[in-house]
Fold each of these.
Amino acid sequence: MKQTVTLDRVTKFMGLGFLMTIKSLFTGDLDKEGFRNFLRKVVVPIASIFLFIGLWHMGAKSLYNIEADYKIEKALTEQGQEAADVMKACIASGDISCQPNTLPSPAQVWESYRSLLRDHQIIKADKDAFAEKTATLNAKRIAEGKDPITYTGRPSFVDQILTSLKTVFAGFLLALVIAVPIGVIIGLSKTLRSSVNWLIQIFKPVSPVVWLLLVFMIVKTLTKDSNSDSAFIISFISVGLCSMWATLVNTAMGVASVDKDYINVAKVLKLGPVQKVFKVILPSSLPLIFTGLRITLSVAWMVLIAIELLAQSPGLGSFVWEEFQNGAVDSNSKIIVAMFVIGGIGFLLDRIMLTIQNAISFNKTSGI
Amino acid sequence: MISNTIHNDLVIENGIAFHEDVMLDLKHLKKVYPTPKGDYVVLEDLNLQIMKEEFVTIIGHSGCGKTTMLSMIAGLNEISGGNISVLGRHIKGPGPDRGVIFQAPSLMPWMTSLQNVMLGVNQVFPHATKSQRNDIAKYYLQKVGLEDAFHKKASDLSQGMQQGVGIARAFAIKPKVLLLDEPFGMLDSLTRGELQDILIEIWNKEKITAVMITHDVDEAIFLADRVVMMTSGPKAKIGDILNIDFERPRTRKSVLEHDDYYKYRKHLIDFLEH
C-alpha cells in the first residue's frame, strides 16, 4: 500500500497522473469513480490518437490522389494518351521514379522512422569500425602531440538529435548564467529596473533570426583565427540570447515581489546584503525563477530548430532542411518523423523542468 | 559610554536625561501619511513610557494606528515627528534589540523550524560556537513545545505551531524589547489560549519588556501589567491607561476568579464603546 502511495505521488509530481489510472486497472482496485477517471484519462486520449491517425491517413490519401490525378492529367496534355497510361501504371505499381510528392501517410512515416534507425545502426557500426582501425594510429598521434583523426562521415539521425540536445543545453546554460544574476540585480533595485526596462521590452520580441545574424557578425570576427566550431558557437549563443528573456523577467519579478513579511524579518534581524539575498530573497523567488527557466527551455528548443536551419550547424533543424532540399521519395516522411521527435523531446524537457520545479518549490501547488 | 548619575536614578547620556527604569520612551510621536488630498495624521503627540520588565498591552479600535505605532518602534516605519528611545538612545531603523512577533508567523517556509530560529541566533551571537547557537535555538523551541519539530519545514507546521516558532525566534535573539503585533489574532481560541500560556511562561522567566497589540480584552488583561487604550484615529493618542494589579505568576483560573477581573473588563469595554 505504501509503495502505491509513493508511486502515486511520484507520477502526480511529474504531471503524469494518468499512469496511476492505468495501474489501478491492472491491480483491480477500480471503483465507479475510478472507472470514470479511467475512461476520461486513458480511453478517450487513446481513442483520440487513433482518430488523429485515421484522419491523417485519409487526408494523406486524398492529397495523394489529387497529386496523382494532376500528374496523369499533365502527362496527358503534354505528351498524349500513351504517356498518361504509362504514368498511371507507373503510379499504381508504386515505382519510386514517379511517386506523387505530397503529405506522407502514417504508414510511410513509420517506415521512414525504422529506416532512420537502421541507418543509424549502419553508421554506428561504421564509426565503431573506424574507431577501432584508427585507435593505435590516434594513440600514436596524441603521443606525438598531433590532433587525432576523427570520423568525418555523415551523421545519423540519432547523432543529429544528440547534437541538437547539446546545443540546446549549452544555450540554456548560457541563458541561466546570464539571466538569473542580472534578473536578481535588477529585481533588487527599483531604479535599475525602470532604467533597463525599455531595453528588455525592445529586445524581448526580436526574432531568433535577427539574433542569429547579430551573433554571426560578432562570432565570425572573434573566431577568425581559431579553428573552433563556429557554427555550434553561433547557434548556442543565439539560442541562449533568444530564450533568456523569460528567465530574466521572471527572476526580476520574483526578486521584486518577495513577501514583505520576509523582508521585515530580515530587517529586524539586521541580515547583511549577502545573507539577505541568499537566505531570504533567492529561496523565496525560486518558484518564479523556475517558471522562467521552464519557459526558457521550451523557447530554446523551439528556436533551436530555426537557428540550426539558418546557421547550417548540424542538428535536427538542418536535418529537416536538408531533407526538404533533398527531395527524395522518403524525404517528406522523414521530415514528419523529425517533427514528432522534436515535439516529443520538447514535451520531455518540459516534464523534466516541471519535476525539478516541483521538487524545489516550497509551496506545494503544482504547475500545469 | 560615559554616564553619570545625577539624582537617584535619573541618568544623562548623550545629553538626554532619562529615568533608569524606563526601557522604551515615546515622546511627542507623530505619524503623517501624505495623500493627494493633504496630509493624513495617524498619530499625533503620542507620549508613552514603558518600564523595564513591564508587559504592556495596547488596545484600540481597528485602524486607530496601533500597528503603525508598533512598526515605528520596530523601526520598520519612519517617524514623522517626535522620537522613540530605547534605554535613552534614539532608535535608528530596525535592529535585533527589538524583537518582533508579527501577526502572520512570517517564517521562511523553505527552512525548518530550527533553521528559522537559527537565522536570528546566528546574527545576534556570531561569536558563539555553532553548538552553542544550536543549543539556544533548541532551548527556545523546546520552550514553545516544538521539541519534536526541529527539522520540520515551516510550511508543514500548523498555524499555531508556526507562531510558536515565531515566539521562539523572537526570544532567542534576547531582545531588550519584544514587540507583538496581534500575534494570536489569526488563531482559533483554543490554540490562542495555549500560546498565551506558553508566551507568559517564557516571559515570566526572561522578563523582557513587552509591548503587545491585541483586540482581545481578556487577553489584554491576562497578560499585561498595564493596558494602554488608544483613541480612534485620525490623530490617535493615548486615551487611558489601566493598571492590572494581579500577582505574577498568574494562571488563567486565578485571574478569572479574581474579584477585580470584571471591574477591569468593564473599564476596558466602556472605553472601547465610547
Note: Chain A has two domains: 2-95, 156-360.
Amino acid sequence: MADQDRFLIVDDARLARKMVRMYLLAIRTDFDVLEAADGDEALRLIEERGAPAFATIDFNMPGMNGIELAEVIQQRTPDAKLALLTANVQTSMRQRAAELGLTFLAKPVSREKIAAFLDGSA
Amino acid sequence: MIALDPIVQDALTEIFNLGIGQAASVLSSLIEEEVALTVPEFEIVRKNEFLALAKEQWQGLASIVRQEFDGPFSGNALLVFPARESLQLVRALLSNGSTIDTITELERDALLEVGNIILNACLSSIADCLGQEIVNALPVYIEAEPAAIVADCTEDPFGHVILLRIQFSVQKEDVRGHILFVLDMPAIDAFSQAAQRLIENYPS
C-alpha cells in the first residue's frame, strides 16, 4: 500500500532531481521526498522507507531503465501513480509509457507538469 | 565533400532543422531566455577534412556532451560549448553568481543534463520525422578539444561524417554552442534512404 505523503524521484541527473524536488515542495511542503540515482537505489529505498504514492522516473539511467523500474514498482505497489519523466520524447517512448499506464512528462520539468501529475490531469 | 541528391539533402537538412528547433525550444524554456538559431550548414565531409574544420572552429578545450545513438542508423550527437560560455550558461540555469573559472561537480552534472535534454529533443524529433526509433546511450560530459572527440566518434580513418553545424546563441548570456552529428558512411546511406522514403510519402 502506497503512503500518500511519499514521493519518489528517480533520475541519474542531480539537477533533474533538484528541479523536481523544488517544484514539488512549492506545491506541497509536507511530502516525504525520496531521491534515487538509479533503479536499484530506488528499490532499496522503497524497501527501507516504504512505497511512494507518486514517483517520477527517468528513462535513460545506468542499470535498469525507467520502464523496467516502473514495471517492478507497479508489481509491488499497484496503487502508486508513476510518471516517466524523460528527455526522450519519441512517439515510441510515449506509446510504451501509455501501454504501462504511466503518465508521460517531457523534460524539462516545470511546476505545471508536476501539479498536473499530482492532480491526475497530466 | 560528397554531394547527395539535392532533394534528399534538402529533406535531411529540414529534418535536422526541425530537431534542433525542438532542442532550442527546450533550452529556451529551461533558461527562460530566447534562443536564436543560425541556418543549419549541412555537409558530408571526409574525416580528415572534418578534423581540420574542427581544429579551425574551436581552439582549446570545450565542454562537450556526447550521446551515442543506435537504431536504423547509428552515430554520435555532440553538443559543443566553449568552456567559458558553458559556465555562463549553467550558472544562468542554476542562478549561481560564481566567478570561479573551474566547473564544480554540480555544474558539470547540470551541463550533462542540459546536453541530455537538448540532444534527446533533437534525436526524438528526427526519429519521429522518419517514423523510426532511435535508441540513445547514456550521455557523457567531456572537457576536451572537439577535434579529439570527433576523431573518436568514427573508427574508419577514411570514412565520411555528416557535419551539421548550427550555432545557437542566448543573447543575454552571450553563449554560443554547436550541435554536431557524426555518422559513418553506412549510417549516412541508411539515413539518406529513410529520408528518401519520407519524400516518397509526400506526392509532389
Note: The longest strand of chain A covers residues 3-10.
